[in-house]
Amino acid sequence: MDIGMLPAVDEHAVIVSATAVKVWHALGETLEQSFGRPRYARLVGVVDRTASGPRPLAEGSAFPGFRVADAVPGRELVLVGRHHFSTYALVFRLEETTPGRTRLRAETRARFPGPGGALYRLLVISSGAHALLTGRLLAAARRRAERVR
């Protein structure tokens, strides 16, 4: 999947008081915990419904709703997925701003085809639910990374 062809949806960022390596590990653990429940995945018909592939997360890893398309430890994690209402990518970028401080960004890109996709976009994106959940995910990764001193 060429994620550059997917329209940008939004981007969120947090500053984490930890090295990029610690943030990377915390992000992987947070993603696995957050998306480890396949109930929603079954409901919307995601392609990847179970955890598989290498751990910690690397290219070819999967968990409900996502497959790792690219992974550069400590720098970038590209997740892709597809379900009945959307084709999407979630790109995490880590940048050490100063020693021991890392900016963690999450960029969402997605296409919502057809009437079902339009309704899904309204319910999930336009309602603000996606922004809220992405913010919570980043905050959880930040807390986890900062706790692992």
From TrEMBL:
<keyword id="KW-1133">Transmembrane helix</keyword>
<keyword id="KW-0472">Membrane</keyword>
<feature type="transmembrane region" description="Helical">
    <location>
        <begin position="118"/>
        <end position="139"/>
    </location>
</feature>
<protein>
    <recommendedName>
        <fullName>DUF2867 domain-containing protein</fullName>
    </recommendedName>
</protein>
<keyword id="KW-0812">Transmembrane</keyword>
